C-alpha cells in the first residue's frame, strides 16, 4: 500500500505545482514571482546547509562554492550539449526540454556532491573554526577557478543560458530537498547525524561510523546546493562568479543560524524572512543594509538559539498553543 | 592466539602515547568471561586511556589487545562495538539535545535484531525505572544521576558482552552510587562481563571479583578484590588509611 500511496502523492504534488505554475506565473507581477523563486532557491540552500552545519555540527561556509559548481555545470550542459540532444532526440519539445534541464541539474548536483566529498575529507581531521576556514578557502578556489575558464564566460559571466527554471521546478526541488533532508535526519539511523553533532566521541563509542556521516552530510548538502545553483542560472539566464563569493555563503549560514541549527522549519522560515527583508526595506534606500544588519543583531540577541532552536513545527504544538489561548479566553 | 580458561579480554604489554607523552607503559591485563574487574588509581594514572584503547578510540603504539582471542589493535571503534564491547564514557557524554529514548536508540545503532532491541529497552527500564518516566525528556535536562543511568542504559543497548565503565560514581550522592552499583551487579548476574574504572575504591572493590591498581601508566598491583581491600598500601593510598 505504502509504495503506491507515495507515488500517488508525488504525482498529486507535481500536478499541483504544475497547475500553480500555469495559473500563477503568467498573472503574477514578475517582481513578486522573482522573489518567490528566490525564496525557493534560498530554502534549498538553507535546508541543505543545515544538514551539514545544524544537524551534523560541521561548520561549513563554502556553500556558494558548491552552488557555483552546480550552476555552471548545468548551464554548460544545457548550453553546449542541450541543443544537440534536443535535435537528435526526436521527441516533442515540451517533453525533451525538461529532460535536458533535469539531466543538467542532476549533473551539476553530482559534480557539486563530488566537490562536497573532497571538502568533507578535511572535516575528518578539522573542527570548528579550522574547518570553517578550509571550507571558505575551498569556496573561493572554486570561484577563482571558474573565473578563469573562458568557455563558461570567465570574467564576463556566462550569458544566454536557456531559460528553463520556472515556479514548477523551484517548488518541486524545494519540496524534494526538504523531504530528503527530513527523512534523512529523522529516521532511526538519521539520528546518527545528530549524535555526531552532540558528541563525536560518544557517537563513535556507540558504534557510529562518524566519518561516514560527516562525509555524507557534506555530499548531500553540496548536491542540493548544486541544484540550487542550476535553478538560479536557468532562471536568470546568466551566471557570474560575483554571485558566488563568500558573502553568499555567509547569507546561507545566517539563514541556518537565524532559523535554528538543527531545525528544518527554522531554515525554511529564515530563508523566506531573509529573502523578503531586503525587499521590504527598499523604501529606506541607502540605509537598507544598515536596517537589515540591525534587525539581524536584534534577532540574534533575543533568540540566540535561532527562531526554532532545534525544534520543528508540528501540529500538536499548534494545537497546544491554540487550546491555551482558548483556555485563557474562557478564563477571562 | 591466547584463549585460555575463558579469557574474554586481554591486553599484552600495551604502550599508548599522546604525542610525546607516554600514558600507558606496558599494560597487561586479562579479564575472564563473567567477571567484574575493577581498575583503581590516582588521577592521571591512565585508567581512561586504558578503556579508550580497548574501545579503539586510542591506538597502542606497542603491544596487543585480544577480544575472545582475536586481535583488535587496529579495529575501528564502530567495529569494536559490533564485536561486543561497549563503553560508558567518563563524564557520561549523553547526547544532550536528544530525548532519553533517542539516546537509548542510538545505543542500539549497530543492531539489526529490532525485536530483541525492544525487549532490551524494557529490561533497561526495569533496571532504571526513572528513565522510563522520562523517555521523552531532553537528556540534557536530566539530573546527574539520571544522566549516568542513561549513559549506562545506552551502552547496554548495544547488547555488549563486555561493558566498560569509566567512573560511573563521579559526582553522585552516596545513595545514588549504591543504586547504580546494584544495577551493575544485576547486569553482571545476567552474564555481562564488567571492567569498572573507579575513584571510589571502597565501593568498587566491594563489588568486583578482582582488581588492578594503576600508577602513572603502569599496573602496580593485581589481586582478588577482597585481598586488595585489606592490602596495607591500598588502604593508605585509596581507602583513606
Ligand atoms: N587527549 C590527551 N592529550 C594529551 N594527554 C592526555 C590526553 N588524555 C590524557 N592525557 C594524559 O594521559 C595521562 C593519563 O590520563 P587518563 O585520562 O588516562 O587518566 P585517568 O587515570 O583516567 O585519570 P582520572 O582519574 O583523572 O580520570 C595523563 O597524564 C593525561 O594528562
Ligand atoms: Mg579518567
What does this structure look like?
The complex is a heterodimer of chains A (332) and B (241). The radius of gyration of chain A is 21 Å and the shape is globular. By secondary structure, chain A is mainly α. Chain A has a domain at 33-244. Chain A starts with a helix and ends with a helix. Chain A has helices at 2-27, 30-55, 63-89, 93-120, 128-147, 167-185, 191-198, 200-205, 210-236, 246-259, 264-280, 288-302, 315-331, and strands at residues 158-159, 238-239. In chain A, strands 1-2 form a two-stranded antiparallel sheet. Chain B has one domain (7-238): P-loop containing nucleotide triphosphate hydrolases (Rossmann fold, 3-Layer(aba) Sandwich), CATH 3.40.50. Chain B has helices at residues 47-55, 77-83, 100-107, 114-127, 129-133, 144-156, 174-189, 201-207, 225-230, 232-238; strands spanning 7-18, 21-32, 36-41, 62-67, 70-71, 85-88, 162-166, 193-198, 210-215, 218-224. In chain B, helix 7 links the parallel strand 7 (162-166) and strand 8. In chain B, helix 3 (100-107) packs parallel to helix 6 (144-156). The structure holds adenosine-5'-triphosphate and magnesium ion (MG). Residues 18, 21, 23, 41, 43-49, 90, 199 of chain B line the site of adenosine-5'-triphosphate (ATP).
Amino acid at each position: 500500500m505504502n509504495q503506491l500511496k507515495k507515488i500517488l502523492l508525488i504525482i498529486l504534488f507535481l500536478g499541483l505545482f504544475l497547475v500553480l505554475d500555469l495559473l500563477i506565473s503568467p498573472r503574477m507581477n514578475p517582481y513578486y514571482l522573482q522573489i518567490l523563486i528566490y525564496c525557493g532557491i534560498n530554502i534549498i540552500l538553507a535546508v541543505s546547509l543545515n544538514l551539514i552545519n545544524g544537524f551534523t555540527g560541521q561548520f561549513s561556509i563554502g556553500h556558494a562554492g558548491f552552488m557555483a559548481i552546480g550552476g555552471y555545470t548545468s548551464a554548460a550542459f544545457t548550453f553546449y550539449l542541450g541543443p544537440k540532444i534536443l535535435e537528435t532526440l526526436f521527441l516533442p519539445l515540451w517533453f525533451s526540454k525538461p529532460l535536458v534541464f533535469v539531466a543538467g541539474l542532476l549533473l551539476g548536483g553530482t559534480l557539486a556532491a563530488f566537490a562536497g566529498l573532497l571538502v568533507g575529507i578535511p572535516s575528518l581531521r578539522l573542527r570548528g573554526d579550522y574547518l570553517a576556514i578550509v571550507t571558505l578557502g575551498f569556496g573561493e578556489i572554486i570561484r577563482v577557478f571558474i573565473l578563469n575558464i573562458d568557455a563558461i564566460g570567465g570574467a564576463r559571466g556566462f550569458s544566454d543560458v536557456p531559460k528553463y527554471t520556472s515556479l514548477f521546478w523551484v517548488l518541486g526541488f524545494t519540496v524534494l530537498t526538504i523531504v530528503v533532508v527530513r527523512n534523512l535526519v529523522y529516521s532511526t539511523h538519521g539520528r546518527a547525524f545528530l549524535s555526531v553533532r552532540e558528541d563525536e566521541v560518544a557517537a563513535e563509542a556507540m558504534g557510529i561510523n562518524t566519518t561516514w556521516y560527516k562525509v555524507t552530510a557534506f555530499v548531500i548538502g553540496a548536491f542540493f546546493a548544486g541544484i540550487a545553483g542550476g535553478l538560479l542560472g536557468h532562471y536568470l539566464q546568466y551566471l557570474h562568479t560575483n554571485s558566488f563569493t563568500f558573502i553568499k555563503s555567509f547569507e546561507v549560514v545566517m539563514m541556518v543560524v537565524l532559523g535554528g541549527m538543527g531545525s528544518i522549519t527554522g531554515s525554511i522560515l529564515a530563508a523566506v524572512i531573509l529573502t523578503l527583508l531586503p525587499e521590504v526595506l527598499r523604501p529606506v534606500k541607502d540605509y537598507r543594509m544598515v536596517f537589515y544588519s540591525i534587525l539581524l543583531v536584534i534577532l540574534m540577541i533575543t533568540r540566540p538559539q535561532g527562531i526554532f532552536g532545534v525544534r520543528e513545527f508540528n501540529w500538536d504544538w499548534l494545537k497546544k498553543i491554540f487550546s491555551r489561548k482558548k483556555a485563557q479566553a474562557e478564563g477571562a | 592466539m591466547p584463549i585460555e580458561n575463558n579469557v574474554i579480554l586481554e591486553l599484552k604489554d600495551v604502550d599508548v602515547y599522546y604525542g610525546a607523552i607516554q600514558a600507558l607503559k606496558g599494560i597487561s591485563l586479562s579479564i575472564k568471561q563473567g567477571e567484574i574487574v575493577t581498575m583503581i588509581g590516582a588521577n592521571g594514572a591512565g585508567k581512561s586511556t586504558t578503556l579508550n584503547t580497548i574501545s579503539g578510540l586510542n591506538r597502542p603504539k606497542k603491544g596487543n589487545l585480544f577480544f575472545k582471542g582475536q586481535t583488535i589493535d587496529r579495529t575501528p571503534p564502530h567495529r569494536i562495538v559490533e564485536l561486543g564491547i561497549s563503553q560508558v564514557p567518563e563524564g557520561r557524554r549523553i547526547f544532550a539535545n536528544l530525548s532519553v529514548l533517542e539516546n537509548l536508540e542510538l545505543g542500539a545503532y549497530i543492531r539489526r535484531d529490532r525485536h530483541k532491541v525492544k525487549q532490551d529497552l524494557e529490561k533497561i527500564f526495569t533496571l532504571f525505572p526513572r528513565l522510563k518516566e522520562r523517555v521523552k525528556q531532553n537528556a540534557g535536562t536530566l539530573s546527574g544521576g539520571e544522566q549516568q543511568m542513561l549513559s549506562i542504559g545506552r551502552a547496554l543497548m548495544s547488547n555488549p558482552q563486555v561493558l566498560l565503565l569509566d567512573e560511573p560514581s563521579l559526582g553522585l550522592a552516596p545513595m545514588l552510587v549504591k543504586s547504580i552499583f546494584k544495577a551493575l551487579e544485576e547486569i553482571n548476574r545476567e552474564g555481562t562481563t564488567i571492567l569498572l574504572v573507579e575513584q571510589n575504591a571502597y565501593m568498587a572493590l566491594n563489588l568486583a571479583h578482582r582488581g588492578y591498581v594503576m600508577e602513572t601508566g603502569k599496573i602496580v598491583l593485581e589481586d582478588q578484590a577482597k585481598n586488595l581491600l585489606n592490602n596495607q598500601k591500598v588502604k593508605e593510598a585509596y581507602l583513606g588509611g
